[in-house]
TrEMBL record:
Transmembrane stretches, start-end: 12-41, 61-80
Keywords assigned: Membrane, Transmembrane, Transmembrane helix
Keyword Transmembrane: yes
Protein name (Swiss-Prot/TrEMBL): Uncharacterized protein
Amino acid sequence: LIFTIGLDTLKIIFVGEFFILLADFFQFFLHLGALGVLRFLLLHCAHNHLTCLFLQISLKLLFLFFELFYLFFGLLGAMLRFELARDVVKGLEECVKVHFFFLLAEVGKSNRVILPIICDVL
């Protein structure tokens, strides 16, 4: 399969999977934030109310940043996976066409009556 899909498609696979992994990395921090672990650590390190408020706002902005990167890299990886799937299907389609036409040629050699019927069905 590697030889049929080509080197460019392999690059797409690796880049797409890298972006999916990067999106999962940001999703890990989002889940960590949803659990409140970082918020708990940051808020308990703050000594006054203003620092707590500043840390809380910056933490929310940080998680918004993580969410945007998660969505961006996830979408980019999914688009590359779709591109890969389309290339693989196109390559398999060409293989099937070639084998099917060889089969039609063999059928046509052996039986001249079946060939027009098969061509009409296609």
